[in-house]
Amino acid sequence: MFKNNxxxxxxxxxxxxxxxxxxxxLVMVTAVFLTTVxxxxxxxxxxxxxxxxYEFSEAAPGPGADGALIGGKATYKKVVLQEQVEWxxxxxxCSMTSLHNDEFAGVQTELLAPDxxxxxxxxISLAKGNFPQEHTQILxxxxxxxxxxxxxxxxxxxxxxxxxxxxxxxxxxxxxxVCGIYKNPxxxxxxxxxxxxxARGFIDTYNPQLSKNQNLIYVKLNNLNPFLLKSDVYNELSxxxxxxxxxxxxxRYYMEFAYSFxxxxxxxxxxxxxxxxxxxxxxxxxxxxxASDIRWFGMMKTIGTSxxxxxxxxxxxxxxxxxxxIFLGILAGYGIGLLLAPEVIRxxxxxxxxxxxxxxxxxxxxxxxxxxxxxxSCSWTLRKAASYSPIEATRFIPRNKNKVFTxxxxxxxxxxxxxxxxxxxxxxxxxMVNRHNQDExxxxxxxxxxxxxxxYKPISKEITSAxxxxxxxxxxxxxxxxxxxxxxxxxxxxxxYETFLAEVKLEGKLKEExxxxxxxxxxxxxVQLLPNGNVKLEIIGLPARxxxxxxxxxxxxxxxxxxxxxxxxxxxxxxxxxxxDVTDKQIDQSKRIHAGDVLDLSFYDDVTETYQTKQLTVxxxxxxxxxxxxxxxxxxxxxxxxxxxxxxxxxxxxxxSSIQIISKESLNGQQIKELTGLLEKEHNVQLRIISRHEDRxxxxxxxxxxxxxxxFLALVLGIIGVxxxxxxxxxxxxxxxxxxxxxxxxxxxxxxxxxxxxxNSLRLCIISGGIMLAAGSYLTVTVASSSMFTGFNPTLFxxxxxxxxxxxxxxxxxxxxxxxxxxxxxxxxxxxxxFE
Amino acid sequence: xxxxxxxxxxxxxxxxxxxxxxxxGVDLNVEPGEFVAIVGTSGxxxxxxLHMLGGLDSPTSGSVEVSGKELSKMNDDQLTIFRRRNIGFxxxxxxxxxxxxxxxxxxxxxxxxxxKPDKNxxxxxxxxxxxxxxxxxxxxxxxGGQQQRVAIARALVTKPAIILADEPTGNLxxxxxxxxxxxxxxxxxxxxxxxxxxxxxxxxxQLADRIVRIEDGRIVV
Lengths: 836, 221
Known about the structure:
The complex is a heterodimer of chains A (836) and B (221). In chain A, helix 8 (257-302) runs parallel beside helix 20, helix 13 (429-436) crosses helix 20 (692-735) and helix 22 packs antiparallel against helix 23. In chain A, the strands form 5 sheets. In chain A, strands 12, 13, 18, 19, 20, 21, 22, 23, 24 and 25 form a 10-stranded mixed beta sheet that branches. Chain A has 5 domains: 1-47 and 261-398, no CATH class; 59-91 and 210-254, Alpha-Beta Plaits; 95-205, no CATH class; 403-435 and 693-836, no CATH class; 481-656, no CATH class. Chain A is α+β, with helices and mostly antiparallel strands and 836 residues long. Helices cover 50% and strands 18% of the residues of chain A. In chain B, 47% of the residues are buried. In chain B, the strands form 2 sheets. Chain B has a 6-stranded mixed beta sheet with strand order 6-7-8-3-9-10, with helices on both faces. The mean pLDDT of chain B is 88. Helices cover 34% and strands 26% of the residues of chain B. With 221 residues, chain B is an alpha/beta fold. Chain B has one domain: Rossmann fold (3-Layer(aba) Sandwich), CATH 3.40.50.300.
């Protein structure tokens, strides 16, 4: 009965209606355009930021690749034939270990002979010179060149290469010439990792017996799902490895999808905010235009236009106008995003890792979010308008808008502003430097941080006495850490050497606690129980007088820190092995070790192959200050005075984990250079210098980066918040147009009208201000307390809040004045006539 | 058999002390081809009655039957389509679609129904109402009387069971009013069209076949 072909007339009415309301269509397109511009610009810039940060934080060898397979030339030939492989590059390692040059101390420096494609695919671009063509030429990074002071091409750099000769590793000095310098795409890890490139002929000439199978095949895959944020790399690479019989795979540490998703969440939050702001904009524009059409709706319904026909008529117009707005918006927004992101990132340290985002990803998300915004904004209003009965429609009067979202949106902008200003402007470089440096400088063994890729080589006695003799050194403190040999960990394709860990017999109270933790640890597997019944622990020995200094970096859970008691040699500090804090509440307290407990501890000494048993009292139970603990004893399970350590471990001189340098004044660059000179003489690449001087530079840069990114964030949110506020106030005034007109007709002056409008806008600002103060202070304290920042600054918070209040007041004055002027453009009589 | 029938029709607004009885038990029968005028003062309930008769508003109680179909049993969409096919409206302010020309306005209800306009019938109506020369004009280029003639044509072309006219001459001067009413009367006779007209003017009401008076929501004559 009701099925008729009336599409034609609906379409005709839609087209005629659209043509008849050109201004409305233009405003509508503009609103959609603006929303789309914001969405696509934020998505483009946001994805750029995320990709860049991702690249920055995940920077690893083969920066352009998804990972590498380990194998020979035959494997490589199979790899390039696979359809899921976009490209693959074969890279040969030229030395058995990393290079042994003294000047590379603390920096794992690899000598590699790659395919030519490797350079292009992995962002190796020349700063000067050429790529190596001969076996005597090397290409070094700009960061290494700066460290070594080798800025001239042709400069000589003899390399300490470990070659394989008749099955034995042999360190050989090979003279090489710098043929080029490249811009280091791994600059952010240049303090720990460098790559030097040479020609393939190097291996044939100097290291011909080198294994032909232990090479890297860097691979870029084309079958990754962009929506999984690279969390599928490992599985895809594993499949490929199986397919081509590679020895093993090597990937960067790609985050789990859930974790990667949390990185995208802030972006989605932004998009949601923009969608909300866009919703208000489009909704307001649409509902204003629809309000004037509602009487017409009533008339159309009277003569027999159904709700569906009315909705369809309007949706046709909306679809057409939205298509124009979205198309233009994407073009402009993508362009703005592409221009904006690199410009902002250029001001930070992350620029080297800048990558343009995937256009299709942006397109998909922008179209989806923009259309969703348009659809939600219009369809609800339209549905409601169409549902009025013809009589209701003729009596329709527009109502005031719900201001909850406006208040929230404005408040959110303010909260982010307060938070960003507090963490950025309140960032204290010195506090950060102190957090990571107890003393002016120190020589540290990298085995204190991570596993080594070649056998452990201790800090020598010579360097200790040489440092003491330096004029600017007041004194030194030696920190020991026990290490049980052998420390080799061997897998199919990798050999590593364990960090500082030592065996202790698992017995008594220690056994009770560790077994309880081992049971509760689940899949985390951090308890290192050995088949011989021992457990591996981090055992630290330090001068008793350092206890007070180190106490600033730990939390005392039980007991007290008393230097004299500690010095006696019968007391220790104890920290459980659960460094991830996953078992804390699952362990029976009676099984835990407490302050005052007397423990019989048997320490294994690998030199004499005997156990040294000591009865020691737990003076203090300690834990780290936070998850990113700093300080020498942050991960120590058993901390004892150095005298006790020396009595337990006869080879204590070979177990120095760091030499803390105490000086009267702050050290300068020249003095750090002197220390570096001493370190180079050590011929030990496993040592590093840490200093306040270098950290100060680093954290100053960090502060700049945080400030720039933070202000950008606050600016974008600010624009959204202000646009929402302006939009709501204008539409509210329009809704009250008739009331205002009547007020004016009965004698309200322009001044009184201005006050009326000002009060309305101020009310919204005051509510937003209240939320900003309450939620902003809570969130700022929480964020500022994280280890990335240096704490909450109440004065700065107060000042910023005052600044915000002033801004809001100025905004209210401006908006009220503009609306007042617009309303009074026509006389009261003219406006009354228009209403009639 | 009545083409329009109301039974104890009531429309109340508000509650308790604020209760307004706009219609209070109206029983009305209109026969096919009849031209009925409903007369009453402002606030007497005549417009409310017309809204109920056209299915534009729902009653508090009672029923309205048009061509034997009870309006209160239909949902919103069914009612709209029923109205499109069976009821023609003529309003005081014409209610023409400003973006459509005269011809498009006239055939609009037919096209909304997905039907093809009956050209001969339309020509006949247009000729009778003197709109032949104005078919391509937009409503805002027409005089009030001409616009009301377009509205009459639009109401007629669907050959509805009944035409409801709400103060059709309210916006017109006396000469044009006479002209429009004359046309209305003529079409009623020529097409045997049932017409219910609302007016507060007794003189105008005299043109109808029957006059129904309404006061305080009740029919008094």
